[in-house]
Design brief:
With 142 residues, the protein is an alpha+beta fold. The protein is built from four helices and eight strands, in the order H-H-E-E-H-E-E-E-E-E-E-H.
């Protein structure tokens, strides 16, 4: 499979994990291997079923979500991406039953990087890195 096809797969996978839609979650098998491992500071999934379940129950506190890629590349069976996510903090963010951060209406900005391993053109492993403390800082009242 061509690197550009794997690059497009990586971009769709990242976008799906950040802003999952029902159609995108239903199509995870076209992006990931059945036993794919996906993790970030706030997500850990092993296998398509686990990933679909987690993405189906994702946070609804953010609207107007956009993902902009600063760099994206594939070398052999390794993919990488650097990207920025912007979103409006428009709904309550539930940490647990006792801790809820109320929305402040601010536009949030998060810089991130991701690495992927491909097997037969699909992602077998996706690891995303970002500073979740800076995200929380933007969410807290001024």
């Amino acid at each position: 499979m061509a690197a550009t096809t794997r690059g497009a797969t990586l971009a769709r996978a990242i976008t799906t994990c950040i802003e999952p839609t029902d159609d995108a979650v239903a199509g995870l098998g076209g992006l990931f291997t059945d036993d794919a491992m996906v993790w970030s500071p706030n997500l850990m999934a092993v296998g398509l079923e686990s990933l679909a379940a987690l993405l189906g129950a994702r946070e609804t506190a953010f609207t107007d979500v956009t993902v902009e890629f600063d760099s994206l590349g594939v070398l052999g069976d390794k993919g990488f991406a650097e990207f920025r996510v912007t979103a409006t903090f428009s709904g309550p963010f539930v940490i647990d039953d006792d801790v809820v951060i109320e929305p402040n209406g601010r536009q949030l900005l998060l810089g991130a990087a991701a690495m992927a391993d491909f097997v037969d053109g699909k992602i077998a492993s996706l690891r995303a890195y970002f500073d979740d403390a800076s995200l929380l800082e933007q969410m807290l009242p001024a």
